[in-house]
Amino acid sequence: MTSMFSRSLLRNILAREGFYQKAQVRPLVELASATEGLGTGVSAPAAAPNSRPIYLDFQATTPVDPRVLDAMLPYYLHEFGNAHSRTHAYGWSAEKATEMAREHVARLIHASSPKEIVFTSGATESNNAAIKGVAMFYRSTKKHIVTTTTEHKCVLDSCRHLEREGFEVTYLPVQPDGRISLEKLDSAIRNDTALVSVMAVNNEIGTRQPIAEIGQLCRERKVFFHCDAAQAVGKIPINVEEMKIDLLSISGHKIYGPKGVGALYVRRRPRVRLEPIINGGGQERGLRSGTLPTPLVVGLGAACQVAEQEMERDHAHVVRLSKRLFDGIVERIPHVKLNGSREYGYPGCLNFSFAYVEGESLLMALKTIAVSSGSACTSASLEPSYVLRALGVDEELAHTSIRFGIGRFTTETEIDYAVHMAEKHVQRLRDMSPLWEMVQEGIDLKSIQWTQS
Amino acid sequence: MFSRAGPLVRFIRPRFTRSYDQKVIEHFEKPKNVGTLDRSAPDVGVGLVGAPACGDVMKLAIRVDPSTGKIVESVFKTFGCGSAIASSSFATELIKGKQLDEAARVTNRQIASELKLPPVKLHCSMLAEDAIKAAIADYQRKQGQELAKSAAAASN
């Protein structure tokens, strides 16, 4: 009774706040004026004061799916037991819930046993635990790690940390489409290579790496393969058996689950051994000590379950909206370049360079749309994205990039509004840009002696 | 129950906060003096500073009344972040109507304090100062050429 009441109360509050409304735009976009404006490119849909921007930053994080929240709530309220308490019913019920969640996670990635799933605080911890854990465990014989230049910061920083500990790291370059070359990977692997770490889907440009081929190569060369799949799990099919992945990082809040929880898949056959980075009571097979946050773990499990059910629908939805956004932007705005690749990209992540318009000013102009100029982790710095530079994108163009992220709750109206706003503000800022003026006059920007370099 | 939940929800609801000062936003959304002047005119000075690779390029142009030495018109075009656009917009306002030597004394501090630029954005105000100085130097160089031209014409 208590739980039912509290649950419906919370749901009511959240619904009243518009938290779950599918059309998150609410009064921000009036459908009529938005579509009207699209034809002429003149009248902008008026933004109502205090309304929230449209959310198109699904790579940064996602809202919790209401089905996930429903699953979590009892474990915050009356089912509050410690999953490691073996002496009473409170503990047993919490343990049952976390083991159920473990099964859901395992099923989504086709792990052969739920025992291969270790719960963590998020993908950053999973990546740290996998890379440092494998390196430290095998350090008496293996001294080398292979990764790529476009990995997430937490992978690159873990590798830097290991370099200071005396390991050697090879950072594989990527091709202009963002993918690594298998020949280069093959020649980078040495006899003392402990681990290859390659992400499944890039967080900034959405490029999918050839994971199955990398897994096959690593298995042949008898090297462990770690895959950071934070942006991939639940969105594209991942099968750790077929793809021969030995360690896989999962994030809760990227798949409509709660923040503060993630998982690491650690293969049991052939066994991968890790030196734990967090020591303590020996929970999670000794790989990650600390009391499990039952509600969060349940949320991650529910998010995986929902993702498995919805993957086909979600993917079709994202593909449709992605095409609408891509076509709209490319047709309406000249001098636009897609960073990464459409062929090998995850369609829910489109990263465009709008030439002659600086990215930060465009973000500021697009204040009614929540987008980012790259990853949320680096948006505070003035440097252009290291991922774009690794692709070989000109520094000039790297300064002009915006990432649009499409997700389960994005609507067609939101996409149309985003295209309309992008067209309007790119034009406005280009009219203000000396570079655009020079290009219109036929001046080659590369021929100019700039005062700073 | 709901009356108690109400204020709590209002408290946890994310506020739409921006890291830019209101003045930056005003200049960014309604920039003053966007435009260009004929760079071949003898009474016009143009300063082009920054580089696309650094993410900031400013072009500031002034028209000077040669008889009074006063800046009668100042316009800009800027490729850069909101603070860079606001800095150049404010700079054109600041120097309009000033004598050239007065305008040359405008510092980045004046711009930065007016727009309350945070430390990471100070380079925008420095760029605006450089743009003013470059425009004045360009005008003076042209005037020097004009003088030389008229002197040459006189000696012929």
TrEMBL record, chain A:
Residue ranges of every copy of the Aminotransferase class V domain listed in the record: 54-417
GO BP terms, alphabetized: [2Fe-2S] cluster assembly
One term under GO cellular component: mitochondrion
Keyword check for Transferase: yes
Enzyme class name: transferase
Required cofactor(s): pyridoxal 5'-phosphate
EC numbers: 2.8.1.7
Entries under Pfam families matching the protein: Aminotran_5
Membership in a protein family: Belongs to the class-V pyridoxal-phosphate-dependent aminotransferase family. NifS/IscS subfamily.
The protein's name in its UniProt record: cysteine desulfurase
Annotated organism of origin: Cyanidiococcus yangmingshanensis
Automatic annotation (TrEMBL), chain B:
Compartments in which it is found: Mitochondrion matrix
Predominant location category: mitochondrion
Keywords, alphabetical: 2Fe-2S, Iron, Iron-sulfur, Metal-binding, Mitochondrion, Transit peptide
One GO MF term: 2 iron, 2 sulfur cluster binding
Domain annotation NIF system FeS cluster assembly NifU N-terminal: ranges: 20-144
Family designation: Belongs to the NifU family.
Its biological purpose: Scaffold protein for the de novo synthesis of iron-sulfur (Fe-S) clusters within mitochondria, which is required for maturation of both mitochondrial and cytoplasmic [2Fe-2S] and [4Fe-4S] proteins.
Name assigned to this protein: Iron-sulfur cluster assembly protein
